[in-house]
Amino acid sequence: MAKHWRRLAALAGAIALTHACMAADVSGKWVATIESQAEPQYAHVFLKVDGTKLTGMWGASKIDGVLTGTDVKITLTYGDGNPAGKLAGTVTGNTLTGTGAITERRGRGGMPGGFARRGPTVVKWTLSRPAVPPATPRSIDFVPTNFFATYSAKNKPALTIFPGDVVHTWTADAGGVDAKGVRHRGGDSNIGPFYVEGALPGDTLVVHLLKVRTNRSTAHQGSHFNANAVTAAYLVGAQYDPAVDGEWTLLPDKGIAVPTHPSEHMKNYSVPMKPMLGCISVAPAGDEQFRGNDLGPFGGNMDYNENVEGATLYFPVFQPGALLGMGDGHAAMGDGEVVGSGLETSMDVDFSVDVIPGDSSGQVRAETKDYLIAFGVSGSVPTSIQIATSQLAIWIKQKYKLSDSEVAILFASTLKYDITELVDPRFNLAAKVPKSVLAAMK
Amino acid sequence: MKCDRLIKVFILTVVIAVTRLCAAADLSGDWVGQVTGPFDSQYTAQYSHVELKAAGSKLRGTWGTYTLAGTLAGTTVEISLAEASGKPVGTLTGELSGDELSGTGRVIPARRGGGTGAALPPNSVTWKLTRAPKRPAAPTTYNYEPKLYYGIYSAAEPPVLHIFPGDIVNTRTYDSARDASIPRHGSGGDVNTGPFYVEGALPGDTLVVKILRLRTNKLIGRQGSRFNQNTVTQAYQLAAHYDPSFNGNWVLDQEHNIATLPPSPGLPHLTIPMKTMLGCISVAPPGEEAFRGTDLGPYGGNMDYNGNVEGTTLYFPVFHPGALLGMGDVHGAMGDGEVVGTGLETSADVTFSVDVIRGYATPQVRAETKDYLISFGVSGSVPESIQLATSQLAEWIKHDYKLNDSEVALLFGDVLKYDITELVDPHFNVVAKVPKSALATLNK
Q1: ipTM given for this complex
Q2: Are residue A182 and residue A237 in the same domain, yes or no?
Q3: Residues A55-77: pLDDT tens digits?
Q4: FRET partner for A166 with CA separation of 20 to 30 A, picked from A81, A250, B78, B328?
């Protein structure tokens, strides 16, 4: 019996010891937030504990540290061996907090020298545990109540989702009118934003458009050319007919749209439907805010007529959770949106998301059944062409391990351009390469 | 009986003589009018379709867009020209000599851009009317083996062959590289075969060119492997490391219609479908203008559109009598924008036929493929090219389908497509196009 008691005591001791160790077990995945006078910075962090020794990665920097009780000291080193900073702090429950000094890269433009001459930046830092995804991806029916017409990190998330979750929802038209005719906020408003767990600045948010279908029988379209689409002489000479009212009747069963009050010449006219999302966005960087019809590296009102069911979009992430939004469905739209609108209508949308950590592009990219696509959004068409081509070249070089000469000759023989958006505050061009060629070249 | 017969013979002789006399002076029919002003050369003179109807000594008809009234007394002709509104434009006097009329006159020059205001003072002109060539009963098929090629777009380039609408020409093109064994006119690259003089084509008309067959005829298509500076950002351009010995000589496989790049480490098996296209297709540019072979404009030229393939029909504004059609610079395939400055440069066998649409022309070139009606916009900037292409396509569709401005805007808002054709040559080229399937549902 005495032996039995001794065993019990040993077990109790072991359990107590394990508990003590667990309280200070900081190994595993963390999300770092660094606050200074500049924009907050975030990083994926992985810690490994060996006795009192800490190793791991803080974003792209290497961690060497010491854990003494609840005290933590960390030295960060850039991938090229240069010092990245020193941090000190304490463990409190499932959080680490502290202060430190970060040696910032001179950074922008990759200037030679690599490091600022200015002194290290004094920061406050926090490590918190990433949210734990559900055991199996969820299927979520989401009824939008918030329609935001400003792209901004200040928009409060309407729903938090994990990579793999499928969201079933709907969007109103650009004017804010939904399938039932109820009016919400317009101005190319987006539903959401959806906070995507695990997405941090520097990552890529992947959005799969699983379903994009019109959900009512009406659409509206303008019938005056925008000033960017035709010559000044044409614009001055044009005599528009108020009887052409731009009302459309959607016949999804037949896959076509027909004018509701057709003029004589358009009595038998029909357009194949190709439902697309005009707006799809993440929150822009820092404190920036843009109105709903604007577009940029954050996406927004890109108005690409291939952003249809089956397309996948890749966004650079600028804010934790990415803050995904979407709206402005068009039942069909010609290139360039030359009359300032597509066949504006509301949509049923199913989508899922994924995150590619630690890799991101300058602007938005996409993938359709047939093409890999890079967008170029800027204030001029020529610059947009250059951005789209360059971004696509960088992507293909990285993905297929091509040299500059190889990607140039590949594009010279197979590149296609789409003129996407001519009439919004910025221009959008798409450069694309056929997947059939990419698939065969390895 | 005998006397009676003699009388009959006499009457017959008189009738024949009178008929002869009338026939010699019957000016009715189609003519080509030339008006040469005091400052004009043969290239800047104005050429028009002229139709004369003679009734007794009276002449009526049209001279280009003008109405014509006049008299013929013996061999002396007097003609007055007027606008459709009746406003007088000028008077011409001259002589009939054989089957040609010529003389002098005074003509008020047209104001550019349809300006109103005081009429300009009349010019002293010389003029000439020659009979319009008659189209033969059956079309001719020509096999034209090029004896030279030309690298300068100019009306001064003498035609190598005269053809009529409906005729078919089998010929071949050279690639943009120089072939030292054949004489070349003009120092510019991107050489053309021709020019072909199309009978019946005059300024203000549209020359229709059907590319009936276009097949590469050699095994190599050479291509560059550096991005042109218009196509990528400056940062990309600065950072790019190009391999100066990169082998861009594609192997063309006509049997399987594919092109294969010599293996490189990252592209061990790059094979693409061939889509043989004519980089250059041109008429002579207006007046005395001369542009090098790489250039492009309202006369076509180095348009580098990868839809100008077998089966495509092109529509050119005609600037000179005979239009002076040329073609060359074949690519076995080419991506949009010709981003490295070349396609898969090669040569080809070409079969084409021509037609003329009289009295109607758009400012720049248009095309039609199996699926699309297409308008080009060539200018010094991409945005302007977009506007030109869109506007010209809108004017064309409005004209052919009798749409109003709202209807054509709505149509374009639904179904318009753009192609960025040429980013790297002296001018930019953008294509606007509408699917023929959508147009087919319109009521003309």
Answers
A1: 0.87
A2: yes
A3: 999 999 999 999 999 999 999 99
A4: A250
> Are A150 and A124 within one domain?
no
- Tell me: the pLDDT tens digits for B396-424? 999 999 999 999 999 999 999 999 999 99
B406 at interface of A, judged by CB pairs closer than 8 A: yes
Hey, are the CB atoms on A406 and B267 less than 8 Å from each other?
Answer: yes
Under an 8 A CB cutoff, do B272 and A413 touch?
Answer: yes
Shared-domain flag, residues A90 and A156: no
3-state secondary structure at position A108: helix
Q: Are residues A117 and A253 in the same domain?
A: no
DSSP assignment of B353-376, as one string?
EEEEETT---SS-EEE-SSEEEEE
| CB atoms B267 and A422 under 8 Å | no
CA distances from A438 to A306, A399, A407, B178 (A): 19, 10, 11, 33
Query: A17: pLDDT confidence band, cut at 50, 70 and 90?
Result: very low
- pLDDT surpassing 90 at residue A213: yes
Q: How far is A115 from chain B (nearest CA, A)?
A: 21
Token representation of residue B125: 């002109």
Q: What is the pTM of this model?
A: 0.89
In a domain, A35, yes or no: yes
User: What is the rounded average pLDDT for all residues in chain B?
Assistant: 92
Q: Are B103 and B125 in contact (CB under 8 A)?
A: no
Q: How confident is the model over B230-286, as pLDDT tens digits?
A: 999 999 999 999 999 999 999 999 999 999 999 999 999 999 999 999 999 999 999
- Is the Cβ–Cβ distance between A197 and A129 less than 8 Å? no
Nearest CA in chain B to A402: B266
Residues in chain B: 444
Only one residue has tokens 């023929």, namely B436
Q: Does any CB of chain A come closer than 8 Å to the CB of residue B246? A: yes
Task: From chain B, pick out residues whose CB is under 8 angstroms from the CB of A388.
Answer: none
CA angle B67, B69, B72 (to 5 degrees): 145
Residues 6+ apart with CB under 8 A from A92: A70
CB of B343 closer than 8 Å to CB of B279: yes
CA distance A215 to chain B (A): 19
Q: Look at residue B182 in the predicted model and tell me its pLDDT.
A: 83
Query: Shortest CA distance to A210 belongs to which of A322, A313, A310, A102?
Result: A310
Q: CB B438 to CB A381 under 8 A?
A: no
- pLDDT at residue A10 greater than cutoff 60: no
Structure tokens at B244: 């100066």
**Domain of A256?**
139-359
Of how many residues is chain A composed?
Answer: 442
Angle at B296 between CA B246 and CA B163, to 5 degrees: 110
pLDDT tier at A38, thresholds 50, 70, 90 = confident
Nearest residue of chain A to residue B274 (CA atoms): A413
Confidence tier at A397 by pLDDT (50, 70, 90): very high
**Is the confidence at residue A19, as pLDDT, over 50?**
no
- The answer to whether residues A143 and A117 belong to one domain is no
List the domains of chain B with CATH numbers: 27-109+121-131 (2.40.128.120), 141-361 (2.60.120.580)
* Nearest chain B alpha carbon to A429: B420
Q: What is the CATH number of the domain that holds A173?
A: 2.60.120.580
